[in-house]
Specification:
alpha+beta; five-stranded antiparallel sheet; three-stranded antiparallel sheet
Length: about 200
């Protein structure tokens, strides 16, 4: 999947007879007569995914997600490169860096927002760095080498999947990413030489 960089994401919320349609910067109230044509003409098109809303907000009310940046290593196995939260300061819904969000070190962020539960959440994120890519790659008929897995964590500490990027950016940790990437390229080169020798 290529990233849409957090654009064109909407939330539809209904409370009694009041329907609210929000994007990152605006929010408006609609009635059913106004909403139904919009759903049929726009949101039910193939380029939209409709899913239940998963609340992932800091204690201050800012939306956030946690990016698991993983790559294959010198053994051809998935490895964690970086885990970091992205916080959507001044945003209603998304936390994409290209749309003006900020990042934070993972441990202080989890401690500040999840208290005593932070270690358990971090442990599960670390586990997902290894288990999720193996399962996700099965959907492809070719090998992947890197993934950016975007997750939310709700106030109860439950983890939800937002999206997966097969060409994740690494602008904040080029050196760490490059080291693992070059090791994987060496693995591929050795595999080619081995295949030719047989």
């Amino acid at each position: 999947m290529f990233s849409n960089q957090g654009r064109n994401i909407y939330v539809i919320d209904r409370c009694d007879d009041k329907i609210t349609l929000s994007d990152d910067m605006t929010s408006r109230t609609l009635n059913e007569e106004d909403l139904l044509p919009l759903i049929n003409d726009k949101f039910l098109k193939p380029n939209y995914i409709c899913q239940p809303f998963f609340e992932s907000k800091t204690k201050e009310g800012h939306p956030f997600d946690i990016r698991l940046h993983v790559r294959k290593n010198e053994k051809g196995q998935w490895q964690k490169v970086k885990i970091y939260p992205r916080i959507g300061l001044g945003r209603h819904i998304t936390s994409n860096i290209s749309q003006g969000s900020g990042i934070s070190p993972i441990v202080p962020f989890l401690k500040a927002n999840f208290g005593d539960n932070w270690k358990d959440i971090k442990r599960r994120l670390e586990q997902l760095c290894v288990s999720f890519p193996k399962r996700f790659e099965r959907f492809y008929d070719y090998e992947l080498d890197a993934l950016g897995i975007d997750l939310g964590v709700n106030p109860q500490g439950e983890i939800g999947l937002f999206e997966v990027n097969t060409y994740p950016g690494q602008q904040f940790f080029y050196a760490e990413d490059s080291e693992v990437r070059v090791s994987y390229y060496q693995y591929l080169l050795n595999r080619i030489h081995s295949d030719r020798a047989q």
